[in-house]
Each structure stands twice: as structure tokens, then as C-alpha cells.
């Protein structure tokens, strides 16, 4: 078999000679032969396919260590690994897109305490948290105030204290309007303080594996700033359509995103509640941030995962669309969850965007 010089192989594989030398040093693409006298590298024509694969994966932005792993796999497994990598890229891009949109709104020069509509807006709200029919205690916390809406779902030995501590930090933002320039910093500071508060609650209870999810919406007068970590959920009912505006931070959701599980399989997966982001216990506490422009007639639902785990989406939609006031709406949603066995704690906050006082 005639070997190719490094120059000929570089041209055929569309990799530079410098890249080939680096990949050899890293054990990623070793030459077929190295001249012992000159150190010159020679490659077999059969190595071209792997070299081209490396080149394509580098163009995707895949790290070299992961490329090395892909190159050891059979074709089907390699395809699955590339799919999983790209799903991660898309998820990261989506998170960056949401943050960019948040920053655009934040830096647009508008004072979020002033409504951009012809009539001032306000929110009308109700909150309810229930132990359910199976759990021994309620580890959820639900809160609704003039400016702040929040749901947290605690877990571990200090779960109840963890969820209460996290929401308690954010309750401070309910007291007074924030200037436009302080909104982003205040939310970032609150997340950091919430992590410390949750860890403090766990330490006080000697329950190191405790933590909580957190979904918070802060009313600015014309917008709602969303902070989301974990698998509690936020929905928006607008013009009769129900939209889910949060993304679950769970192992199973990641498996669905990268194509390893179908949504139907995820619904019954034994690890469907295993979190990849949460507050406390050293978990990744990176929050999703969004700004939602408010419209009169919008209805928001914040809920712990005990609601969607028990109640189908179409039933949640029906209640939100048909029950006119927030308080009876939260009562009916909790009753539906308990009517289906109440397998988990369930917490709901419903908030309507209405015309405010002029």
C-alpha cells in the first residue's frame, strides 16, 4: 500500500499540516508511519475518512477530547454522539438567545416602571400550595404579591426550608419598584443570595443533599422578568392559546433534546425528576432569564411539577381559559391534581394582566 506524504494527505483531507501534527501529538490521528531518521510523517489512504470526519467535527466546534471519543465509536453510536453534542449546542444557543433578548430589553433605554400602553397595567393574582395525598409533608412554597410571583419545589431532608428560603430572598423585590438600570443586577444578586440561603437551610437541618427549584416572575409595570431554575414551570395563556415559556432542567429533558428519548418515554422514565440545575447542594444554579412583554388579558401560571405530572396539559388549558378569577382557578387546578391521586405536592400561582389605576 502506497503511503501519502503529510503534504498530500493534508490536501486530500482538507486539514493543514499543522493540524495533522497536533492531532498526532494528541493521539487523535496518528500517522501510519514515521520515518525514524527524518521524523517525517506518512499516512495511509484508508485514514482519509477518519481525517475528514475530524475536520467536519472541528467545523461543528466539537472539542478535541470529544472528537477522540467519537472516532472510537461504531457508525451508529458516533451518529448518536454527534446528535447529542449538537443538541447541547442548540440548548446553549437558546439560552444565550434568551439572555440576549433580556439584555436588549434591559438596555433599550425604556423605563420598565412606566407602561408603554395607553392604559397602565397591573396584575391580579392568587397562590395556593397543597401537600397532596401521598407525601408526608409539603416541601413546596408558593408566593404571589403586588410585584412578585414565585413557586419553588424543595427536595431532600430540608426541602421545605430550602424552598421557603429561596422564595424569601426574592420576596424582598416585592417591596419597591426597581429602577431600570438595576433590574438585571438585582435578579443576579438575588439568585446568588438564594443559593446561600438554601445552603444555610440545609446546613441548619444537617441535610446536605437538599435544594430547590425556583421559578420567579417580577412585575415591572409593562413587563415580567422571569428567573427559572429546575423543573417547576411557567405557562402563558394569550388569546386563548397556552404556551409553556420555561424549559425543564432535568436529565430526561436533556435526553429528549438530544434524541435519546421520545416525549412519551420521558413521561414514564424513572429518572424524570432528576435535576441538572437547582439551587443548593453545589448544583448548577445557572438561571434562565427572560423578559415577557405584558398584554392586557394575559394569564400566567407558575406551578411545581406536581401539577403537570398529574394533570394533562389540555385540562390545565381548560381551567385557565374558562375560570375567570385567579383564586378559583388555583383551587380548581390543585383539586384536579388531588383528584388524580395527588402523588406529589402541588403549588400554583395564577396572575392576570389587567388595566391598572390611571
Structural class: alpha+beta
The total of beta strands comes to 14
What percent of residues are in strands?
15-25%
CA-based shape: elongated
List keywords for this structure.
alpha+beta, 6-stranded antiparallel beta sheet, 5-stranded antiparallel beta sheet, 21% strand, elongated, single chain, 358 residues
Describe the secondary-structure layout:
Elements: E1 4-5, H1 6-13, H2 17-25, E2 33-34, E3 41-43, H3 48-60, H4 64-70, H5 75-106, E4 121-130, E5 140-144, E6 148-155, H6 159-171, H7 183-204, E7 211-212, E8 214-219, E9 223-229, E10 233-238, E11 241-244, H8 251-257, H9 263-267, E12 288-293, E13 299-303, H10 306-310, H11 313-322, H12 326-339, E14 346-355
What this model shows, in words?
- It is a single chain.
- By secondary structure, the protein is of the alpha+beta class.
- It is 41% helix and 21% strand.
- It is built from twelve helices and 14 strands.
- The protein has helices at residues 6-13, 17-25, 48-60, 64-70, 75-106, 159-171, 183-204, 251-257, 263-267, 306-310, 313-322, 326-339, and strands at 4-5, 33-34, 41-43, 121-130, 140-144, 148-155, 211-212, 214-219, 223-229, 233-238, 241-244, 288-293, 299-303, 346-355.
- The strands form three sheets. Strands 5, 6, 7, 8, 9 and 12 form a six-stranded antiparallel beta sheet that branches. Strands 4-14-13-10-11 form a five-stranded antiparallel beta sheet. Strands 1-3-2 form a three-stranded antiparallel beta sheet, covered by helices on one side.
- α6 (159-171) runs antiparallel to α7.
Amino acid at each position: 500500500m502506497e503511503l501519502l506524504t503529510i503534504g498530500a494527505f493534508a490536501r486530500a483531507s482538507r486539514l493543514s499540516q499543522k493540524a495533522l501534527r497536533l492531532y498526532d501529538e494528541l493521539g487523535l490521528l496518528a500517522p501510519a508511519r514515521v520515518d525514524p531518521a527524518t521524523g517525517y510523517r506518512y499516512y495511509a489512504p484508508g485514514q482519509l475518512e477518519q481525517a475528514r470526519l475530524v475536520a467536519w467535527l472541528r467545523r461543528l466546534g466539537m472539542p478535541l477530547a470529544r472528537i477522540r471519543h467519537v472516532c472510537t465509536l461504531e457508525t451508529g453510536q458516533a451518529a448518536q454522539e454527534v446528535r447529542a453534542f449538537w443538541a447541547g449546542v442548540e440548548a446553549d444557543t437558546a439560552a444565550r438567545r434568551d439572555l440576549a433578548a433580556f439584555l436588549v430589553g434591559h438596555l433599550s433605554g425604556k423605563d420598565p416602571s412606566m407602561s408603554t400602553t395607553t392604559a397602565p397595567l397591573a396584575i391580579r393574582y392568587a397562590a395556593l400550595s397543597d401537600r397532596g395525598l401521598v407525601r408526608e409533608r409539603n416541601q413546596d412554597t408558593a408566593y404571589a404579591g403586588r410585584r412578585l410571583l414565585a413557586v419553588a419545589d424543595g427536595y431532600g431532608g430540608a426541602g421545605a426550608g430550602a424552598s421557603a428560603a429561596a422564595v424569601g430572598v426574592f420576596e424582598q423585590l416585592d417591596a419597591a419598584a426597581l429602577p431600570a438600570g438595576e433590574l438585571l443586577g438585582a435578579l443576579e444578586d438575588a439568585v446568588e443570595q438564594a443559593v446561600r440561603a438554601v445552603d444555610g437551610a440545609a446546613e441548619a437541618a444537617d441535610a446536605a443533599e437538599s435544594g430547590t427549584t425556583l421559578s420567579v416572575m417580577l412585575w415591572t409595570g409593562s413587563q415580567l422578568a422571569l428567573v427559572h431554575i429546575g423543573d417547576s414551570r411557567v405557562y402563558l395563556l394569550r388569546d386563548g392559546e397556552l404556551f409553556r415559556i420555561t424549559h425543564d432542567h432535568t436529565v430526561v429533558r436533556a435526553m429528549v433534546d438530544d434524541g435519546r428519548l421520545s416525549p412519551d418515554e420521558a413521561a414514564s422514565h424513572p429518572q424524570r425528576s432528576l435535576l441538572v440545575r437547582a439551587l443548593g447542594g453545589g448544583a448548577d444554579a445557572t438561571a434562565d432569564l427572560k423578559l415577557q412583554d405584558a398584554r392586557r388579558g394575559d394569564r400566567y401560571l407558575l406551578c411545581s411539577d406536581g401539577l403537570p405530572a398529574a394533570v394533562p396539559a389540555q385540562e390545565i388549558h381548560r381551567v385557565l381559559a374558562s375560570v375567570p378569577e385567579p383564586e378559583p382557578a388555583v383551587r380548581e387546578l390543585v383539586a384536579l391534581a388531588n383528584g388524580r391521586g395527588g402523588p406529589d405536592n402541588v403549588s400554583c400561582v395564577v396572575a392576570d394582566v389587567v388595566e391598572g389605576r390611571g
